[in-house]
Amino acid sequence: MSSEDSKIELRELQPILSRTFGDQLIVIRYTTKNLLQPGENYGSTIFGVHAVIKRDDEAEEEDLYLVAKMPPPTQFQRKIFDSPYSFRKEIFMYETIIPYYKQLERDVGFKEDELFDIVPKYYQSRLSLNPDVDFDDNAVILMENLKTRGYYICDRVKGCDLEHSRAAIRAMARFHALGMASKYKQPEYFEVLKQRSKSIEVQTEDFSQMREDMLKRIADDPEIGVHIDRCSAVMSESMQHGLWDMLPDEPWSTIVHSDFWVNNIMFHHDENGQVDDVKFVDFQNYLFFNPLRELVFFLFSSTENSNDHIEELIDLYHETFIAVLLRMGCDTESFTREKFDDHLMTSAKFEFMHLIFMLKILTLNIQESEFKNNDLENFLITYKGNQLFVQRQRKLISYFVQRDWI
C-alpha cells in the first residue's frame, strides 16, 4: 500500500441503519468481507456485511445481509472517478430518481406490485462520519445483499444467454422509457434530474495513444485488418464529438445506466429455472445520454448471442420501449421503427470506440493478469487484451461492417 492509499473499513454501522429501522435498533455485531477481487470494480470498494441486529431491547436477534459500497482505496481511482461526485450521484438515484419513476407509474394507474422495482433495497448512506467533512474514507452506501435472496450475475466471460439477454433488454428499455416519460410529462422537474446526471470530467490525454494502439491491433489481425480504414474513420469522428460527454440529439435522450454490462445486472429465477426478476446495481456513472448507445453497448459487451438473436433483441428493445411509453400516456410518433433504425446506425457508430476500449477491460481475466489497483493508470494504457478480447473484437467489427454501421 502506498502512502497515498487508504485502508477502507466499515465503521459505525448502527447510526446509519437506525435511519431505516428506527432509534430502538441495536447492532449486536457485524463482520465484513471483500466481495470483489481487484479488476472486478474500479470505482469503489465493495464489502459484504453480515450484521446481527435487534429491533429493540425485547426483540429477537435477526441476521441482516448487506452490501456496503465505499470509496476506492487509491487516490488515483478517486480522482478519475471523482468519488465525491459519483457517490452523490448514486445516492440521488436511490433516494430520488427511482422513487420518482415509481410515482409516475402510480399516477397512470400502476398497482404496487406492477411498479418498476429495479434496484436492491436501499439502507441509507453517508459521505462522512464528521458533519464538517465533505467526503472521506467513511462514505458508504448500504444496500441489501441480493445474493442471499438467490440473485446472481451471468458469466463474465460468456456473457448473457438469450433468455437472460431478453430479460435485461426488457428492463433496460423500461428504464429508458421512464426517463423519456419524465421528460415529456414533467419537463421542468426532468431538468433537475438532467443536471444531476452529468458525466464526471473525463481526462482524454491518453486516449489518442490508446486509439493508435487499438487501430494497430485491428490492422494486424488477418480477419479484420481489411476494415482498418473504416475503423480509423469512425474512431476519429468519435474523438471529435466526445466519447462520454456527447450531448444526445433530441428526441433520443433520457437517463441511462451508462455501465450496463454483465457484472451490473443481477437475475433471479423461479423454481422452474425461468428468469423472473432483474435488478440493476452500480449507479455511479448514470448519464443524460443517448439510450441507443447503451443498447449497442450491452449487446456487444455482455451477450453470447448469434447475429440473428442480436436482431431479435433489437426488435424486443423497440417493442418494449414503445409499449412503456404508450402505457405512460406518451406520444410515440417520434420513435417509429424507421426513425429508430436510422438513429441506431448513428448511435452504433459513436459507441464503437467506447466498445473496443471497454471490451479489453471487460474480458480481462483477473486471475491471470498482473492487475493491481495502485497501477490502474499504467495498466489501462499498456494492457493489450487477451484471446477472448480478440474474438469479441472480431465479432463486433464484422457485425458493424455487415450492418454498414461503420
UniProtKB/TrEMBL annotation:
Residues covered by the CHK kinase-like domain: 141-327
Top-level division of the source organism's lineage: Eukaryota
SUPFAM superfamilies to which the protein is assigned, alphabetical: Protein kinase-like (PK-like)
Protein name, entry field: CHK kinase-like domain-containing protein
Gene3D superfamilies registered for this protein in UniProt: 3.90.1200.10
Species of provenance: Camponotus floridanus
